[in-house]
Amino acid sequence: MQADERAGRGARAAEEPVTILTVAREAGVSKTTASDALRGSGRVSEHTREAVARVAERLGYVPNGSARHLRRASTGTIGLHVPEVLTRSSYYMSFVFGVVEQAARHDYDVTLITSGQRRSRPPRVDGLVLGDPLGGDPVVESLMATGLPTVSCERFPGSRQPDGVVWSEHAAMLARLLDHLRESGAARPALIVAGDESDWAGSVHRGYLEWCAAHGVVPLVRRVSFDASGDEVRAAARALLDTAGPGTATPGLRESREGDGPLDALVCAPAGAAAEVAPLLREAGANVLLASCVDNAATRQSDPPITAIDLRPKEAGASCAELLFELLSGAAPMGTERVHPIELNLRASTRPRP
Fold it and tell me: Is the pLDDT of residue 115 over 80?
């Protein structure tokens, strides 16, 4: 029996190299199951793991280190890059926790990388997760040039492209929010948004302009920096109120131009911006509906609570990490894109007003 197996193995080796597909075929399992069994990850029974390991040993299977998508772990660590606003953004904190928890399920550690860290050598990791990478960020560009398998949360607005993308339909969700504002009686919603160096911010801006064009609304936009401070956001809100006054006659606020219509709703894209603007609107006596493109504790605890889009950051981080592990094991092909579902939470700040 052993002689027959050796003969068969020799004939097979002469015909084709032994790959993970060969092991899976011989073991009678899928390619994903075989990969998970040999890496010690995934939901694979101990019996199946042992059976696949025996087949791999018998066939003399050796992973191809030159094929990135079939490479085995060499460091037991993945890298995670996030913008520098991490320290004051609950969104990125939740995103990090999602990546770390998913990595732990695969018995991996996570190395945190920020744009303030200039490196003379590539990080010692098996792959990278990029959280909402900004176009023009030299650290992101250098990370993507390392050749390491890379997954980004949202598309990268630069010349290079990651190996996998987890993205959300922000423009479509913003259109749903604007439709809700219209149903609540708002005819002239305005937008505060960061620059287009972020795919997320660019999608929100594009979605707003498309909605305005479809409904014959004159756009009213103020741009702020990606990591805008509270002062910068409030200054943008004051400029909007001064440009196209609120729906009520408020002293000190300019009348809107004929045909433009009064500003009666404000959508704040940057995280935390809506909570910063709410007191300003109250002080001005502006009868303006208020909504946020990012949900967090501040929008939920505001008075009144603020309607917001829940980006589900922890789940987004977990999804990015899982896609990276699938790329590393060969369970997902290079270029895989997945849609991460987001939600609209309607609250008292956008209820119809007299």
Answer: no
Provide the token pair at 240. Answer: 């909007």
Rounded Cα distance, 67 and 261, in Å: 59
How many Å apart are CA 328 and CA 348, to the nearest integer? 45
Write the pLDDT tens digit of every residue in 202-222: 999 999 999 999 999 999 999
Which of residues 257 and 203 earns the better pLDDT score? 203
**Domains recognised in the chain with CATH numbers:** 2-62 (1.10.260.40), 77-168+314-339 (3.40.50.2300), 170-310 (3.40.50.2300)
Supply the DSSP symbol for 134: B
CA atoms within a 13 Å half-sphere pointing along the CA-CB vector of 300: 7
Burial (CB count <10 Å: 0-12, 13-18, 19+), residue 158: middle
- Please tell me what DSSP assigns to residue 69: G
Rounded to whole angstroms, the Cα distance separating 17 from 56 reads 13
Integer Cα distance of 197 and 170 in angstroms: 15
